[in-house]
Design a protein that fits this description.
heterotrimer; B: alpha+beta; Enolase-like, domain 1; 3 domains; five-stranded antiparallel beta sheet; three-stranded parallel beta sheet; 13 strands; C: alpha+beta; Ubiquitin-like (UB roll); DNA polymerase, domain 1; 2 domains; five-stranded mixed beta sheet; 33% helix; 14% strand
Chain lengths: 813, 292, 162
């Protein structure tokens, strides 16, 4: 996975770009968003806004039990309820061979339960009715008889010999084990640990959390019986992948399926997979002959759609007593829920977790991931995890702090001692990643400068000595300072290594310049708020020099866009952005040929200035892109072998991932008597290479930092011993508000990616990856204890301070 | 979205109409004002009244005024009005301090004092506030008006003494000179219910001893949202750190918190102790400024 | 039952079930889909509208309760082509990403500024604490409201540049 091509264009400074008549940078720079025009007026078009003539509404009946045999389902009450048009059960789906469907991980999952229910909230029946209100009424009239079974919700018990077998639908299954996966060198680790001065062992849980975008998931399916075309408006981050999967699973001809992803109210990895509700809306439309809308409610979203994380990690770090890291190893117990439905490249069942070696220079590492089934919803890869890099980064940054604790060394000093140096890039990690570029010490220094690190440590020291005096105020807050340094790997990925369900992760892009010099760019990726309609126009603008307001970005409709695997894992800019840059570059080169024909000179006589090819030494003699576009569509004679028009179509196969990175510092004050944590400051220095639109990049970072506050302080999905989901609404699954978030302090460094056509790296998930550890490290620093798990609610914090830390994933007793 | 089951709907324009409609409903009719306790439960189908009697038009129950040596708060007064009330701020800061941490600003624009009291959620902050202040609930029915001390208003979780054909019309709070009051709440996040919360008032006499004191305990299973034993221990004594600490310990021992995802029992008890100390200390300090 | 509600200054009327939520009256009956919804428990604030100028969660108000009252939705913020300073502030300061919480957020901000022409950051954060956002981390929303504060008097009558 080494890199060879240099970037095609100079990354350039944002301030260099000339301005268009509308005042926008013709290329990179701060530019207000084109998509805002409709959102600000309430004219966004989300799935629940879709209204078709004769449209019906679906609702799902869900299991109250985490584990139970389905004895019988009596739908007669619902069938007879006025306004109900169809009631679908697992038995009916069985006749269509649709009761089960494949997951993105080679397993199968139930669309509607047939033999058993395997998590609380699992889909059991589907009602289609004339209104949502009637559908909800009818749900209550379906009588299901269950025979409850013992439930497994503690991953640590899933492999107990007497644990009930959850997946008895799979032939030959005798336990709840899914897979073991390893990376790194166990023997090298054994050697390093044996020689180390210091070994620190720790158990760290990254609890189950949920992306919880503000818009829930849903679909409107319309099977037109006359044309045989199925159109599905749906909340998907990957419309083309959905289309292909529906074709494979339901046996529908792929050219007759149109998936439309309209405006999406946040994705964060929640909207990658295919949920039973989507399939049911399609079946409902086929059965009734009418369009069927299914929009899940919030508790359905939290209880049944893709959760994130749930990694139970046992880590060990080895070092010299001077603080040089020698090795890092970890055993992970991964709770996948009742079905293995994670979305990540096929060859990597634990995603990119093996990037857990982090940003440091040491030779030996090893990880083993054991995945198990439990009686919970399926998922695991979601919530801006970059395919488990959130877990990896949290793990290594916590372990480094545990080492600092043991050595009684300042955590910034310890990191600085071990960070990779710029001259070591491209750097191959002990588990085989090739980091493309980075100046890590500079980023950490910049974060420390913005934070005023020395002053903060002095303030902390002063407060600690005041607290140790006999007349000290027992309610005086404990101050904590926490760091996190992360390396991300984004932009999956090279198709020979990375596919999902056999579909290679290369993405297409089509750029068309019209006769009057305006352009349309068609993308395979799908924005859910990241601003693609603006930033991708800016990429093209940067290369061919026409104003971004003259470039329309189209995405989301599979009939009108090229194939690709969609937006997640921060891959849009690294992959699709590269495709757009390559397409624009081809247009620029083709324009040169057309200009030469129009100017009756050789292509070698031409020079480029932004948006215009002109004759060297005779600048008056030139053609703008608009003139070239018209010429390309005219009767102008072109050289042999050169086709007319001004279009380019590209499929970009990235040679490697790109590696954004960052240094974060968090300052907290903890009330020792109540355990209440207040985040005083958060400093984030990010390096994602050149910034296409700094305003949008900062917005992405702000959002991810809030995720860190959420996970560190309040977000968790816990379960009681009966398998009841204790975070099934926004009353219990708490998202951070404006009150818990500080005013973010951002800094930046810029290290271009050597292999990306415009040097950019992607940034969408960086802050979510890096921030939780910064907050948690700060809290533990305040408490002066080595380890406790998040979320640090007041109760959890107080108990940790008492030396009786609680597990976050189980019911509090 | 989850939506309520069907129900009949009536609008009451006077208190008498409301009572008549409740009477007609025979126990299956419920009053709705702000609706921010009842409607969520109806959407989840945990509550299924056959008839809703909408009393949002009873604007003549929307008031906060001094009547003699009491402050009268009408039952349809919205939470935001309690928060912003100059009258209440003058006499009892506990109201503004509690309201600021009740739900969120949008909910406070609709929720009412009467609705919250009659919902009788064990974590209702106003229940503890009124209990601390030893307020009196005024209830009207077809046969007249009766007054019930707030400390006898709650029968159990989500249950009050208000009968099927009765309506809470007002809560009356005694005015006390030389008083300071405070509310202390710990929550997992802005807008959440309390993990535990404490409200208190302290009235000092001319010698600086506690003439009167009231303690309200939220979300910890305290009977009638208070701890009378702790109050008794403070009356007539100087409000020293030790006396306050003893009262706090008594509150912590006597309350009955349950473990849930907001916290285990030992933490909640501990929290009661801490918050009682803080509420009493701040109340005493502001009472001193009043008296001094 | 028959209800009539003034929405964005216009008279509307319909025959509705008592249980119809105001958010559904706006979205489904009137086709004003700018008001969104995001939860079942009155927590998220995506459904915020102004009821007689006061911001409320329309998922927790029955349509029948709005009978005879004034409702303002996001569609009623602009005056013709002229965006409200709050809308312009959200644009200028990148106060929105996916746009889903935005209508509710802007209406809460609009009501705040109607009552307080110069709120500080703390007041703004308190005012929007009932509106959840998963995209922006709130920073730019606060800046957007401050932009509106600073551009309200002079620019009220300017046409939108959008």
């Amino acid at each position: 996975m080494t890199t060879t091509q240099p970037p095609m264009t100079d990354a350039g400074s944002a301030d260099d770009e000339p301005r268009s008549p509308a005042g926008n940078p013709i290329g990179f720079g701060r530019m207000l968003r084109k998509e805002d025009a409709r959102f600000l007026r309430g004219q966004g078009h989300y799935v629940d806004d879709v209204a078709l003539p004769g449209m019906l509404h679906g609702a799902v009946l869900r299991s109250p039990f985490a584990h139970a045999r389905v004895v019988s389902i009596d739908t007669s009450g619902a069938d007879a309820y006025p306004g109900v048009r169809a009631v679908i059960t697992g038995k009916i789906l069985e006749t269509l061979n649709l009761a089960w469907m494949p997951t993105l991980s080679g397993d199968v999952t139930a669309v509607l339960a047939t033999d058993k229910v395997r998590f609380q909230g699992q889909e059991v029946a589907f009602v289609v009715a004339e209104s949502e209100y009637i559908a909800r009424d009818a749900l209550e009239l379906i009588d299901v008889q269950y025979d409850p079974l013992p439930a497994i919700v503690d991953a640590k018990r899933a492999l107990d010999p007497q644990a009930p077998v959850i997946r008895d639908d799979l032939e030959g299954r005798t336990d709840n084990h899914i897979y073991d996966w390893e990376a790194g060198d166990a023997a090298a680790c054994d050697e390093a640990f044996a020689k180390a001065d210091v070994v620190v062992s720790e158990d760290i849980i990254y609890p189950r959390v949920h992306p919880a975008p503000m818009e829930t998931c849903g679909s409107v399916a319309n099977m037109d019986k006359v044309t045989g075309k199925l159109t599905v408006w749906t909340t998907t981050q990957a419309p083309h992948a959905h289309r292909t999967v529906y074709a494979l699973v339901a046996g529908l001809p792929e050219h007759k399926i149109q998936i439309i992803s309209p405006d999406i109210g946040g994705g964060f990895g929640n909207k990658v997979g295919i949920y039973p509700g989507y399939v049911l809306s399609i079946v409902g439309s086929i059965i009734t002959g009418a369009p069927v809308k299914w929009m899940e409610d919030r508790s359905e979203n939290l209880m049944s759609t893709s959760f994130a994380r749930d990694y139970h990690m046992h880590g060990e770090i080895a070092a010299t007593r001077e603080g040089k890291i020698l090795a890092l190893r970890v055993n992970v117990l991964a709770d996948h829920g009742a079905f293995n439905g994670v979305a990540q490249p096929t060859k990597f069942p634990a995603g990119f977790f093996h990037i857990f070696t982090g940003s440091y220079d040491y030779p030996a590492a090893h990880c083993k991931v054991t995945a198990v089934y439990t009686n919970k919803a399926l998922g695991g890869v979601a919530y801006a995890c970059s395919f488990r890099i959130t877990e990896a980064a949290y793990f290594v940054e916590r372990m480094v702090d545990c080492l600092a604790f043991e050595l009684q060394m300042d955590p910034a000093e310890l990191r600085m001692k071990n960070l990779l140096r710029p001259e070591q890039f491209p750097y191959t990690t002990p588990t085989g990643w090739v980091y493309d570029s980075g100046n890590y010490p500079r980023a950490l220094q910049e974060a420390m400068r913005i934070a005023g690190y020395e002053e903060l440590r002095k303030e902390q020291a002063d407060r600690r000595s005041a607290a140790s005096r006999p007349d000290a105020d027992p309610s005086a807050p404990l101050m904590g300072i926490g760091l996190s340094f992360f390396t991300e790997g984004v932009g999956a990925g090279p198709r020979k290594h990375m596919d999902i369900l056999g579909l290679g992760m290369a993405d297409g892009c089509e750029l068309r310049v019209h006769p009057t010099g305006k352009a349309q760019l068609r993308l395979s990726v799908q924005t859910q708020g990241q601003g693609h309609e603006t930033t991708f126009a800016q990429i093209v603008s940067h290369i061919i020099g026409i104003p971004p307001e003259d470039i329309e970005v189209l995405h989301g409709d599979t009939d009108n866009t090229p194939f690709g695997l969609g937006t997640y894992g921060s891959r849009s800019t690294p992959v699709s952005g590269a495709a757009a840059a390559v397409a624009a570059q081809r247009i620029k080169e083709k324009a040169r040929v057309v200009a030469a024909a129009a100017l009756e000179c050789s292509v070698d006589d031409l020079e480029w200035e932004h948006g215009r090819w002109f004759v060297k030494g005779d600048p008056e003699k030139g053609k703008t892109m608009a003139e070239i576009a018209m010429a390309a569509h005219s009767s102008l004679e072109l050289p042999a072998g050169v086709e007319g028009h001004l279009d380019a179509s590209v499929v970009y196969d990235p040679p490697n991932l790109t590696y954004p990175f960052g240094a974060y510092i968090c300052v907290v004050d903890v009330d020792p008597q109540t355990g209440v944590v207040k985040v005083r400051r958060f400093i984030a220095v990010d390096d994602c290479g050149p910034r296409i639109n700094p305003m949008i990049v900062e917005g992405q970072i702000h959002g991810g930092l809030a995720d860190g506050i959420g996970m560190a302080l309040m977000e968790v999905m816990a379960f009681d011993t009966e398998g009841n989901h204790l975070g099934g609404s926004f009353m219990d699954y708490l998202l951070p508000t404006s009150m818990e978030c500080p005013s973010w302090e951002l800094g930046m460094t810029v290290t271009p990616s050597p292999h990306h056509p415009i040097g950019v790296k992607g940034v969408g998930e960086s802050a979510t990856v890096g921030s939780p550890a910064a907050v948690v490290n700060a809290i533990l620093d305040a408490l002066q204890i080595r380890q406790a798990d998040m979320p640090f609610t007041p109760a959890m914090t107080w108990r940790a301070l008492q030396g009786r830390a609680m597990r976050p994933d189980l019911a509090i007793e | 979205m989850q939506v309520p089951a069907p129900f009949d709907y009536e609008r009451a324009n006077t208190v008498e109409e409301a009572i008549a409609l409740l009477d007609r409903g025979g126990g299956s009719a419920r009053l709705v004002a702000g609706g921010h306790s009842l409607l969520p439960m109806m959407k989840l189908r945990l509550a299924r009244p056959e008839t809703l009697v909408d009393i949002n038009a009873l604007t003549d129950l929307d008031y906060i005024r001094v009547e003699g040596n009491e402050i009268a708060i009408g039952a349809t007064t919205r939470h935001h009005a309690v928060l912003d009330s100059a009258v209440l701020a003058e006499h009892y800061r506990i109201f503004a301090e509690a309201e600021r941490v009740i739900a969120d600003p949008l909910v406070r624009n609709r929720g009412t004092v009467g609705g919250s009291m009659c919902q009788a959620d064990p974590a209702e902050d106003l229940s503890a506030v009124f209990s601390a202040l030893r307020a009196v609930a005024v209830i009207r029915s077809g046969s007249g008006t009766r007054s019930v001390p707030v400390r006898g208003f709650h029968v159990g979780p989500y249950e009050t003494v208000v009968g099927d054909a009765e309506i809470l019309v007002e809560v009356r709070v005694p005015i006390r000179s030389g008083t300071g009051s405070a509310y202390e709440k710990v929550e997992r996040r802005a807008g959440d219910y309390a993990v535990a919360a404490v409200g208190a008032f302290v009235q000092l006499d001319a010698a600086g001893a506690v003439a009167d004191v009231g303690i309200g305990l939220t979300a910890v299973g305290a009977e009638h949202f208070t701890c009378e034993e702790a109050e008794v221990s403070l009356r007539g004594t100087p409000p020293s750190e030790e006396a306050i600490a003893r009262a706090a310990a008594t509150c912590a021992e006597r309350c009955n918190p349950r473990a849930d995802q907001r916290g285990p029992v030992d933490y909640k008890r501990h929290l009661v102790g801490v918050l009682v100390r803080r509420a009493l200390t701040r109340s005493t300090a502001s009472a001193s400024r009043e008296v001094g | 039952m028959e209800i009539s509600v003034r929405v964005n200054g216009s008279h509307t009327e319909a025959d509705v079930e008592p249980r119809l939520l105001l958010v559904h009256y706006l979205r489904e009956t009137l086709g004003l889909t700018g008001t969104h919804w995001g939860c079942d428990t009155s927590n998220c604030g995506a459904c915020t509208v102004l009821l007689d100028g006061v911001p409320v969660k329309s998922c927790t108000v029955l349509a029948v309760m709005a009978e005879g009252h004034d409702v303002t939705t996001v569609e009623g913020l602009a005056k013709g082509d002229a965006l409200d300073p709050v809308q312009r502030g959200f644009m200028e300061e990148h106060g929105l990403q996916c746009g889903f919480c935005t209508p509710g957020m802007m209406l809460t901000a609009r009501a705040l500024l109607n009552g307080n022409a110069d709120p500080d950051e703390k007041s703004i954060r308190e005012a929007i604490s009932g509106n959840l956002c998963r995209c922006t981390g709130y920073e730019n929303i606060v800046r957007a409201v401050r932009w509106a504060v600073e551009h309200s008097a002079a620019d009220e009558t300017e046409e939108a540049a959008v």
